[in-house]
């Protein structure tokens, strides 16, 4: 009996981030469910199935971008002119301000994320607005829209009220997009803001230990970030240094909550061991880190491989389009490529960071972004050269072809 909606996809390699692989390989789908994955001979050719043969392609599950800023997409890639602080100051007036402009920027970001093979996003809504979450809820993406909050010193009271109102006004989970909260960073949010965010019991994210300027600010409330906050008119005399590293500053929260922590470029001795005991995810954005020239001042490179060795959940993010070198897509596939080419990381480890690590960080079922039997977020094909003797997934990571959707993206609810 023919089976309506069944599709058999055969490719040079089918592979996921949990170790499923077959080369050549096949995936049998029925609508938005994977029925089987393995060698073509094992799966056979079920009657009535539509067959797609891709002998010069690798088939992967859809990707997860655990840290992006889709509301900066209208700016496009932006050359770095100066340091981190001057970059923030250039970005500030370029942000979209009206609801229409914010919606258009997020929509552009949604299209670029989909063009990059993304099914799930951890998106930072950086303009104190619920327009981004509404735009995401009208799209084919799923994930978390983290409303970004700023509030230091006397401004913490307002910041807490903004979060409470947003949580009251906006459904927690609708059309696969959940409302999350992101206290922006330790140099822009006081502890009361972080503590209130925890109490509101929504998915949480923050930027952490991104720059040396942040380390100086948290320690002594001095330096270029203090000067910037004074120029922005958000300084008051209650703001003081904490005489510690940002990790210690937020230890009470991070040691207890599954926060998605972006960047973490600068750690001191013993920090990786400490972080490994906490329920957090590291959102590593390698292209964005390189864009800002990290590590500065002879500090050690990013410790993501040590974090992986300690069993930490390390997921990949892109950060915003202004930091990227791909104007036509926003994709962690390009961050996998960057790490493969720079550091020679094992390809399946990279695929795990770009799929299941992100899904679990955002609170979604990991199997949606694997080749396991059951519901799937979708499947991607990436071109390779069938005559190249190199292993197919390594070829994907050496090339720069855009991923193509061959199934999905399917709604995740
Ligand atoms: Zn960010």
Briefly say what this structure is:
This protein is 33% helix and 23% strand. It has 413 residues and is of the alpha/beta class. The protein has two domains: 6-61 and 370-407, Urease, subunit C, domain 1; 63-344, Alpha-Beta Barrel (TIM Barrel), CATH 3.20.20.
Task: Label this structure with key terms.
8-stranded mixed beta sheet, Urease, subunit C, domain 1, TIM Barrel, 413 residues, 2 domains, 5-stranded mixed beta sheet, 33% helix, 17 helices, binds zinc ion, 17 strands, alpha/beta
Biggest beta-sheet profile: 8 strands, mixed
CATH H-level superfamily title of the largest domain: Metal-dependent hydrolases
CATH topology of the largest domain: TIM Barrel
Residues in helix, %? 25-40%
Instruction: Name the shape in a single word.
Output: globular
How many domains? Answer: 2
- Structural class assignment: alpha/beta
The parts where pLDDT drops under 50 for at least 5 residues are none
Estimated share of beta-strand residues:
15-25%
Q: What is the name of the CATH class of the largest domain?
A: Alpha Beta
| Radius of gyration, in angstroms, nearest whole number | 22 Å
| Associated small molecules | zinc ion
- Average pLDDT: 96
**Second rung of CATH, namely the architecture of the largest domain:** Alpha-Beta Barrel
